[in-house]
Predict the structure of O-acetyl-ADP-ribose deacetylase.
Amino acid sequence: MPLHIVRNDITTMKVDAIVNAANESLLGGGGVDGAIHRAAGPELLAECRGLGGCKTGQAKITRGYRLPAKYVIHAVGPVWQGGGHGERELLAGAYRASLELALANGCQAVAFPLISAGAYGYPKDRALKTAVDVIGDFLLAHDMTVYLVIFDRAAFSIGEKLFADIAAYIDDRYVEEHTDRREEQYRRAMAFAAEAPPLCTSACPSVPGSLDEALGRLDESFSQMLLRKIDEKGMTDAQCYKKANIDRKLFSKIRSDTHYRPSKPTAMAFAVALELPLDEARELLEKAGFAFSHASKFDIIVEYFIARRNYDIFAINEALFAFDQSLLGG
């Protein structure tokens, strides 16, 4: 764990293995395939010649040679023929075969391109959905860090309707946040002044007499609330941090430190993993010292999904990536 969607050149990724979108001959080609062969050097082609090719939907592994990665996993995706010729199953098979090879060879970090989405013509939004589904399922059962590398910004799409819906939601919230409401603010200030309570008497809440007394009134911490919610949901720790797209080591830090202060993306990721309604998500976020802000696209997008009870963290991250925002978890 977890899955990261990044923009990068896959040949520069410092991971245990990179995946090559290969053809059945395994002898190089254009696009990602050609770039990987050029970066690895002629030794890669020499080893590939001894592999006897690879069938569509399967994968084979070689050394990485001059690449930063120790291994290259050559996965053969399908050519798009309209979707009625088993393309989805073949593409999913190529991802699964690659992940199994990585696991068998002790890889802890693997980088994938968007297989079949170039010259093979697989629709990019469908290719991305298949990649995220297969990798996400694999990571629920195995500890591995996987990068889905999108080299070209134009190669990414979360679907026109969803994109438009989120864009409209953002616009609406931005208007609420940024519209000049001086007159309304003035009316509120005057109303507040008129209704303000008198100065405190003996009936007012007591003021702590010392710093020690004040510190003794500490509320439930983020870590304490998180662990309580996990128990209330009947989840195991592993189920929670995997659904949150969080690394096990980070979760261990949170569990062992009552006063651990997570980043905002981490806190939001746990709210999603726990499938909290919006009011409870806000409360968990407050425990970490944050709040949902309608001045932030990141916050609005996460709020959009939680408000609709869509707790698929990978779908949320696809949307965040499309709008150039930080991702949840990780």
About this structure: The first helix runs from residue 31 to 40. The CA atoms of residues 190 and 196 lie 10 Å apart. The chain has a mean pLDDT of 87.
